[in-house]
Hints:
two-stranded antiparallel sheet, about 45% helix, alpha+beta, three-stranded antiparallel sheet, 5 helices
Amino acid sequence: MRMAGTNGGRYAYYRCTRAALNGEQKCGRSVSAGPLERFVREVAVKGLAVIDVSGRPLVSTVRPESDVQAEEKDQKKLRELNQLWLSDDLSTSEYQSMRAVILKRIKERQRRTVQRPVAVLEGIAGPDAEANWTELERSENYARMNAIYRFLFSAVIVHPPKTRGRGFDTDRVEVKPNPLP
């Protein structure tokens, strides 16, 4: 479920982007922005306090295992295709058309590869994470805070409420961490 933030009405909140749909696709989930943002901030600061970024490469690459295996298979197919062409079992036009299909798949997977700069955590992570984060908030450096959130978390999922009534239920919020490099 994707959530969109809004500041309309009495207070800011996030609601499902499928709220305007009809039928089975309709989703009426929403959550008050203040408590959710405080909860995610707390999770981020706790994570930053234990992360050690010293000695890590400046950019980490995240690729699913299935993409790595598919890449190896396609590289093998390219080598085999090249051998067939060199031994004159394939014409040049056949070789080029088959090669183009494989290269297109490889490029599509490379385009989906996520690169996350570890440098975004520099000066923030460590035992002083709480004070460093407070300084970011004081200086209103929202771009950097958002970059840190994107580095740490792949998603923040808000599940349907299990209880009725007021109050923020942290049990309905699932924070999915990104794998660390």
